[in-house]
Amino acid sequence: MPASALLTLMTTAARKAGRSLARDFGAVENLQVSVKGPGDFVSTADHKAEDIIFTELSKARPDYCFQMEERGVIEGADKSHRWIVDPLDGTTNFLHGIPLFCISIGLERDGEMVAGVIYNPIMDELFSAEKGRGAYLNDQRRLQVAARKDLSNAVITTGIPHRGRSGHERFLRETAAVMKQCSGIRRTGSAALDMAWLAAGRFDGYWKHGLSPWDLAAGLVLIREASGCVSDMDGGMNIIQSGSIIAGNPHVHNMLAGTLKSIET
After folding, report:
1. Quick check: 219 and 195 in contact, CB under 8 A?
2. Residue 165: what pLDDT?
3. Is the pLDDT of residue 153 over 70?
4. CB 101 within 8 A of CB 21
5. Given the DSSP bridges, would you call strands 125-130 and 40-43 parallel, antiparallel or unpaired?
6. Comparing 26-35, 158-167, 176-185, 248-257, which segment has the lowest mean pLDDT?
7. Separation of alpha carbons 231 and 239, rounded Å
8. Which domains does the chain have, with CATH numbers?
């Protein structure tokens, strides 16, 4: 199915920003890096990629609103549309020479996520999805979540709260419960890639607390369009507002949610 003009725009912006990140990744020792908080960094690469994305998207849709990790909220005349952008998800990986990072661009329409693009420029993998039109890898392979129906055969991904973040004890309780039931737990260091890889069937399930809208926006569309199931930790749909997520195919999602709900908080 041909991509819409909006998805083509998102893809073009992501690939253009990706070329900038790939160049900076090859010379990461020369980048200027600032500390936003404990274990939380921003580099000139983040800002350059975000500038490229903002320029590309605003040139084509000048009235749309933005929510961007570095620039923050930018109001537009069209209040029904909002771009939600993370120019570099996985900054710590990037700065350590680990090629697991990506650009994430989501489009929200009237409060609902309707399109998403996640691009890893080093692996040249572009994951894209539109509501009702399916999810794809590099515009060629249709994505489908994995079909495993039991946690005992499942590989689950999550994120580990680092220094300066809350929830360390909760994470240890949750991980202890999940690891007893699944065949493996992984941590990539990029929430957006976790969601893209779940949509591609590489991971079977995902859970995480403390995420920002730009971490979640594009991935939600990808997982849903790949026939996955997503909820917040309470089983509701306030995922972006709550910053929490449980995801997988319907079987894994329900079993993972049951396991996590059984833990005392």
Report:
1. yes
2. 76
3. yes
4. yes
5. unpaired
6. 26-35
7. 6
8. 5-142 (3.30.540.10), 151-261 (3.40.190.80)
> Which amino acid belongs to residue 261?
K
Could you tell me the CA-to-CA distances from 120 to 10, 19, 27, 97, 123 in Å, in that order? 14, 10, 17, 14, 6
pTM: 0.94
Q: Give 244's DSSP letter.
A: -
List the Cα angle 168/170/172 in 5-degree steps. 70
**Percentage of residues in the chain with pLDDT exceeding 70?**
95
* HSE toward the beta carbon, residue 115, CA cutoff 13 A: 17
Sign of CA dihedral 146, 150, 154, 156: positive
Q: What is the DSSP letter of 2?
A: P
| Contact between 208 and 245 (Cβ < 8 Å) | yes
Phi, psi of 167 (to 5 degrees): 90, 15
Residue type, 123: M
- Asked if 163 contacts 157 with a C-beta cutoff of 8 angstroms, the reply is no
